[in-house]
Specification:
Layout lengths: L2 H4 L9 E4 L2 H11 L3 H16 L11 H5 L1 H8 L5 H4 L3 E5 L6 E4 L1 H6 L19 H16 L10 E6 L6 E9 L3 E5 L8 H9 L4 H7 L5 E5 L1 E7 L1 H14 L7 H15 L5 E6 L11 E2 L8 H5 L7 H9 L3 E3 L9 H9 L4 E9 L2 E10 L17 H26 L8 H16 L15 E9 L2 H30 L3 H18 L6 H20 L4 H12 L10 H31 L3 E6 L2 E8 L11 H23 L14 E6 L1
Parallel strand pairs: 1-7
Antiparallel strand pairs: 2-3, 2-8, 4-5, 5-8, 6-7, 9-10, 9-13, 11-12, 12-13, 14-16, 14-17, 15-16
Helix pairs in contact: 2-3, 11-12, 11-16, 16-17, 18-19, 18-20, 18-21, 18-22, 22-23
């Protein structure tokens, strides 16, 4: 509760003040001087004032207003013309106590001055507080007497409960000082520039204001006018927007009920029900819809009796993406079981609105009533600004939900193939929903039953033999290149060690020619690295000719390994080319296979390419499996292998001579 507002009733007045009609009478005289109609009317009032001269002076006895109420009403007609009194909210108010002495019928119905202006009916820190009124008064003094342009008006929001609907109504209260004047007592001193700057810096500081401009130097005379404007729609929309920014507003049941209450206030319909549906996946059908907070059609009784799938009006909204309003479910043409379900739930009138975010349908807003026609195309025009707010909120909530789902999947499951991720998401969502409902249970085991396996494999037959042959050829050539240099330098120098090295190189060549043993490659490489390379490091400095030969030798070696890698590279590149061709074509053909029937697919590459396929009802979410799909996929697999074989034959001119196409084989199995 705002304690400051409690002070309003006991406000003694910082400034000297008096209640008076003199500012209003001056205004009458001013208008009468320029307008004959006002002049005629004022002549009548003037004669009556001569009989009640007490109204021409400041009024200390407020009972005089009641005593002369008819004349007071005539005086106030220039402020509140009779034509507007039944439609506008105005009141005339004493300047100090903030009690009304005149209210239009509409203002009186608001009950603003009842119960001593209850603080809980107003927004916090409004200018009805004692400090707020003082600041507002000083703003008038500074503007009128100090030559500074200062205005002050803090929004005052008054909230009341409508007697008919039981819903809140919000009003903005404006206070006008048209007929209230500040008079100085003649003691006003000139304010320095430094004091003016200090005033500007402390316009909200009552202590500084009263220090620079003593309040006793001023007197307030006249009365205030209060005006109330109904801003329920704007205030409710603003409040809805603020609530929907908070992600948990539709996930928390209590906050969801707050949204429902505010929607009732906006539409002035106290009994309507709110429902929200989201689509967490790309499947925009009611089968994959998710209740957010509460829902009309996704309530337990509808789901248990499998009513959701028969609600064609929802499918129509999903298809057309247009708002649909059903005047009466009973006359809409639903199937008897659907009609009965809605009637049992107390729903006759229904609004279904698609929620669009960035051109994507992400949810549905439901509003239901038990009264046919209560929701119609006229009164729901207010919701045009509401739809985007709910769409944004659902998008934000789905984003958080997806993060939670992924977290659960990572915690509870191993790596998941994209084709079956939907099943794990469903299980994770069910697990999270149980947690929200305080149901402690582990995530369900996920099993795919009645699945048909397919297997395919392609390979270069004896690829390891050809790879070893290539390695053997490269090592022999590497040794011969080294031996040629050793013999050349040996013939030009007298170093017996070179002849001995040539002999050992020759032994390595003879051993390799007989075949490559399991350790043969390692032994030869160690020999080249430890014996030949180290010797070449010494020989290259013996003469320019030696340097030239050794440099030429090194240029022929693979820069990464430091050894001859020509034949082996040809074989590896050929096998890689074949595998890439097979894998690429498999991906192309797999797109076609998925159109036959969605399925699990994975492939692996080694010296060949193998693929696994699993097909069945339990692997897909929204399709029915038929044996024809099985036959079609078997035929697809055979056709695909033929296409791949043709593609590989076309590679003939690009393959190493060691890789013979006649040795390439395929194998399929199912």
């Amino acid at each position: 509760m705002n304690k400051n507002i409690q002070k309003v009733i006991n406000y003694s007045g910082t400034f000297k003040g008096s209640f008076s009609f003199r500012p209003l009478i001056k205004y009458w005289e001013k208008r009468a001087a320029t307008n004959k109609v006002f002049a005629s009317h004022y002549d009548t009032i003037k004669k009556k004032l001569e009989s009640s001269p007490e109204l021409l002076e400041p009024i200390a006895d407020k009972s005089l207003v009641e005593k002369n109420y008819g004349l007071v009403e005539e005086l106030l007609n220039i402020c509140f013309p009779p034509a507007i009194q039944d439609h506008e909210y105005y009141a005339a108010v004493f300047p100090e106590s903030l009690e009304s002495f005149y209210e239009t019928p509409g203002f009186k119905r608001l009950g603003l001055f009842e119960n001593q202006m209850r603080s809980q009916a107003f927004n916090e820190n409004c200018c009805l507080t004692q400090d707020g009124r003082i600041v507002a008064g000083y703003a008038g003094i500074i503007s009128g007497f100090c030559g500074l342009n200062v205005s002050y008006e803090y929004p005052i929001i008054y909230t009341r409960t409508d007697e008919k609907t039981g819903l809140e109504r919000h009003y903005r209260i404006r206070i006008f000082s048209w007929f209230c004047e500040f008079k100085n007592s003649g003691k006003l001193r000139e304010i320095s520039e430094a004091e003016k700057k200090r005033l500007f810096d402390n316009l909200d500081n009552v202590k500084v204001l009263t220090e620079i401009i003593p309040p006793e130097n001023f007197e307030l005379e006249g009365f205030f006018i209060f005006n109330a404007v109904d801003i329920t729609d704007q205030e409710t929309l603003s409040s809805l927007k603020f609530d929907l920014i908070q992600k948990e507003s539709i996930m928390s049941l209590s906050k969801f009920e707050t949204l429902q209450h505010k929607l009732r206030t906006l539409l002035k319909k106290p009994e309507i029900k709110l429902g929200l549906i989201a689509f967490p996946s790309e499947n925009k059908s009611m089968k994959y819809a998710l209740k957010m907070g509460s829902s009309i059609v996704l309530q337990d009784t509808f789901i248990e009796n499998e009513i959701v799938g028969d609600c064609k009006m929802y499918d129509e909204v999903l298809k057309r993406r247009e708002v649909k309003i059903i005047y009466d479910v009973k006359d809409f043409g639903c199937s008897p079981r659907v009609e009965e379900a809605f009637m049992n739930a107390g729903i006759r009138n229904l609004l279904i609105a698609p929620l669009i975010y960035k051109d994507e349908l992400i949810g549905i807003l439901e509003i239901a009533s038990s009264i046919p026609g209560e929701l119609n195309k006229v009164n729901v025009l207010k919701l045009i600004d509401v739809y985007p707010l709910f769409a944004i909120c659902i998008e934000s909530s789905l984003d958080d939900l997806n993060k939670s789902v992924q977290s659960v999947i990572k915690e509870k499951c191993t790596a998941i193939h994209p084709s079956v991720e939907w099943r794990f998401r469903d299980a994770a969502m069910a697990y999270l929903n149980n947690i929200r409902n305080d149901i402690i249970i582990e995530m369900e085991d996920i099993v795919f039953e009645n699945v048909y396996p397919f297997y395919g494999y392609s390979d270069v037959k004896d690829s390891s033999v050809y790879r070893n042959s290539a390695i053997q050829s490269d090592l022999i050539e590497n040794l011969k290149l080294a031996q040629e240099i050793v013999l050349k330098i040996s013939s030009e120098t007298s170093m017996p060690i070179l002849e001995e090295l040539s002999f050992r190189i020759n032994n390595q060549i003879e051993n390799l020619s007989k075949g490559l043993s399991s350790s043969g490659e390692v032994d030869v490489i160690d020999f080249l690295r430890n014996e030949v390379v180290s010797t070449f490091g010494f020989l290259q400095d013996t003469s320019p000719e030696a340097m030239s030969m050794i440099t030429g030798y090194r240029d022929k070696l693979d820069p990464m390994s430091g050894f001859l890698f020509k034949k082996r590279k040809e074989v590896e590149e050929s096998i890689m080319l074949i595998n890439e061709t097979i894998a690429s074509e498999l991906d192309i053909q797999q797109d076609k296979a998925q159109r036959i029937f969605p399925h699990y697919f994975e492939k692996y590459k080694s010296d060949g390419v193998e693929h696994n396929i699993y097909m069945g009802d339990s692997l897909v979410a929204d399709k029915k499996f038929n044996p024809m799909h099985l036959k079609s996929l078997r035929l697809w697999q055979l056709v695909t292998i033929c296409i791949i074989a043709k593609k590989c034959i076309e590679l003939k001119d690009r393959l190493s001579s060691l890789i013979l196409l006649t040795l390439f084989m395929f194998r399929i199995q199912h």
